[in-house]
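Why do we bother with a discrete structure alphabet at all? Because it lets us treat a fold like text: something you can write down, compare, and reason about line by line. To make this less abstract, here is a complete entry for Glucosamine kinase. Read it the way you would read a sentence in a foreign language you are learning: slowly, and without expecting to understand everything at once.
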Amino acid sequence: MQNLFLGIDGGGTNCRARLADENLNILAQVRGGPANTTIGDGSQAYNSIIDVSHQVFKEAGLSQSDMTRTIACLGLAGAHLESSRRDFAAREYPFAKTLVHNDVETAREGAHLGEDGAVLIVGTGSAGLAKVKGEYFPVGGWGYHISDTASGAILGRALARRSIEVLDGLSEGSPLTEVVIDHLGGTQNSLMAWSFKAWPKDFASLAPFVVEHFEKNDPIALELMQFEFDQIEQFINWFKARGAQKLAIVGGLGERLIPILTERFGDYVQAAKSDAQNGALLMAQKAA
């Protein structure tokens, strides 16, 4: 029987699966829960992967037995960590073959359709990867606690911190902090309680408020976004120093910023030619 190919893009906020036939014609695609391999013991990510896999086969009108003729490629946030990648590669999957990569590898493959070029994920987390004359150059992606400086999670956390400072009377507020304070319950106690339960995806959920108010010239939004642009520029300079001729920006926050980034940094910055799920499908097809 003909092979099927499954491409999964597992991020800190959601997990997306795309099923294709041997010619990479799309049969079905679905979205599920978070799939960062380093959150907890990895069970949440693993369960999200298995869940979207079952969903996408059902959506395509195929049975679970068809999984045994499927080559799956998983591009997962957190699989940058070698121990995490090994852990997920060793887990049980219902497929004929399962490839485990980190999400920036599949994103880069999709963004440039296998050709040379760099990619920067600017989503819940952030990480980059360039391919120059067949050589790969990874950067960032070491997690929310010590890295991910261009991410929505870090931007959202900065906004939460500024908001609690405003409530404490340590700094002046703005319409941006007013909206976010109200969104998080209106008091120091409510913000504190929210923060104790917040995952990176929860902090990242605040980033759209920053972008929205940046477009309105809110002073705090302008300050926070300048930090974001500085981080992205640092990556741009890093990629250029390694010979990358173009940079695709991907991820929910990054894609929203592309018009602003092209205005600031020119046509070196561009939208991806395709997405991470397609990148995963291309990698799965190569492994057939």
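What the structure line is telling us, in plain words: The chain has two domains: 4-113+274-286, 152-271. Residues 219-241 form the longest helix (23 residues).
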